[in-house]
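Collaboration report, partner site 2.

Our partner group contributed sequences for two proteins of shared interest, and the home lab folded both. The records are reproduced in the order in which they were received, starting with the first partner submission.
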Amino acid sequence: MGIFKKLFDKVKNLKQKKSNSENLFLKDGIKKNNAANFDHGLKKTNNFFVNSLNKIIYKDVIVNDEFFHKIEETLLSMDVGSYATDKIISAIKNEVKFQNIENPNLIKQIIIDKLFVYYIQDTIVQTNLNLKTNETNVILFFGVNGVGKTTTIAKVANFLQKNNLKVCLVAGDTFRAGAVEQLDLWAKKLDIKIFKPTKLNQDPASVIYDGVKWASENKFNVVLCDTSGRLQTKINLMNELKKINNVIKKFDPNQPCESLLVVDATIGQSGLIQAKCFSEVVKVSGIVLTKIDSTSGGGIIFAIKDNFNLPLKFLCFGEKVEDIEMFDLEKFIKVMLKNFSFLEEEE
């Protein structure tokens, strides 16, 4: 059985166990991810992964401590994280020793298998948004300054609209100069309704409460709420985010259905600190990774899963509004394995 099939069968089995939901996407269907977008977004990560393993594992390679140390360095350079890397290396060593393997291609397969099996074990592979039918679903977006949050909201809005959902925006970032205008420009470009503050420097919690109420009255399927970028060290701003979350729950205890932390993939392990701090204030339901095309550190998804068991919901890349894809583990695996010559021989 080929490595593709073995990995995909494991993912498929886990999906079947997790997918008994009345999710709006699962019920009504969602447009397929664009494989070309995945290839583009993860190109740097794939190239680094493939080139690194090919340099480490060659015909006459000697499997010793130095060999495993080089694999460890590769995983750390991909931002897989120290804890996950230690576990994966240990699993690789045990498998190689148990089977007494010397064939370089088989060693590559073991590395790949242990890497992705580590990700899917005890995790939620189903990464669809938790949207319910016959409800106004509220998605709250937050993150530190400069991660591309407002543009990400526009991308998600466009994505949902193309999946035939009635979408609106709420401009809750009343702190950053020009933030409301930026979101308003996106709304006009996408022909999407937007709720904006009625006065200068209005309390963001009141804006979002009124916006959610307005969205519900107008029967929108999904309302996307923008918030101010905030450093996780600023206690007053983090308390403000907690207040925003609470006013949404005051309107509807079941909302927000998604609380998404937007993380810049290029910052690597610093994203883990952000996830920890924001998780202490609100219940983070998932991660959106931006700028994934600008880094070889796509392994950050392993570190995030390892530390918080949070599903990755979207990958963002590029400046165009179409440069976004829902995270799909099967496609992620396929792109990460692309360009390995032994896979072509196997099939």
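Second partner submission, folded after the first:
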Amino acid sequence: MEKHLLLGNGINIQFGGSEFTSAHIIKRIKNNSAANKYDSLFADKISGTDIISIFEGLVGVANSIIEGKHNDKSFDLDTTEAICDFMKRYTKKVSALHEIMLEDWLLLLHVFFSLNNDLMPIYQTAVQGFEQLLLDAIYNNGEIQKLYLKMNDEIKNFFLGYENIFTLNYDNNVESLTNRKVYHLHGDFSVLADSENPETALGYIRTENGDTAWIAEMKHCYCNALLNYSGRLKYKTAMKKYLTILDSETYHNRYKNDILFRTSLEINNSIEAQMIRTKIMHPELKMATDYYFSKFESIKGELDIIGLSPNNDQHIFDGILNNKDLTKVVFYYHDGKERDYIESHYPNELFDCLSVQELWKSLKCGKE
């Protein structure tokens, strides 16, 4: 029987310690901002003090959600569901920045802009800025990419026993350890975003025009990471790109055989048309990032899950439940609450819960 592995941030905490918990990541943003580390990232237009003030202001938005002040607002379905989930997880008033989990900041930002429509023109710029701050703090001056040095031969051989390894993490430790392909469902620090990557059609165009934005000392902030307050929104983005990739496979034949397609493409100078023309002229280029959900959703046999919180990333569990070729899912839980959640929310005939602490002991891995 085929066996596959899915990894979450718990593995980074196991080998990297508390430095890679959400609380410490948020503290790093505050400390880095106070030290003016992000001046180059924001072209000296936003100071470190400004960044801290923005985060502190969003704490007020968090507490207003906890108090139920936004329950009657006309938000879209994804936001409404995210607000309900936020209220379930935060039952007490928030008093410090690090008490709020990473991607919940993107929800707070979205709620703030939704309540201030006059600011909506700068919303996407604000989101991009927040994502870059989160990515830099996760990256931790490159320390996150060195965790494989703390992994022993037992864990290496354990990983090598799987048919495919999927991860929700952005780091490249498992591939550094095993010298194998690892499928990043949410993006990868080592791969630039489509707009910056010269191996994609859009990135090629922008590189040729000198329009790319990434800077060497902050290159990791311009990677292809998927960040969002809703797992389903991440999934929508990933699948939209996947469908673009599939569509791009038809461009050459359509240009050759469809006169309407060819004529339209030749007179249209939109960025989309430029990308299609570039792809036709340079078939080696990628049309978009592949986040490998199609591969993940087609696996067969057994799936083992390590380091993933069962309360997050519902789109992952949706994909698992919709895959009729999976015969067994082993969820390695961190504590009793995680085990109880899995056993009460997912079919017992499919899911089996095992202690991750016992797994680490069997692999002779001590916690950092």
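Feedback sent to the partner group on the second submission included the following. Residues 18-140 form one domain. The radius of gyration is 22 Å.
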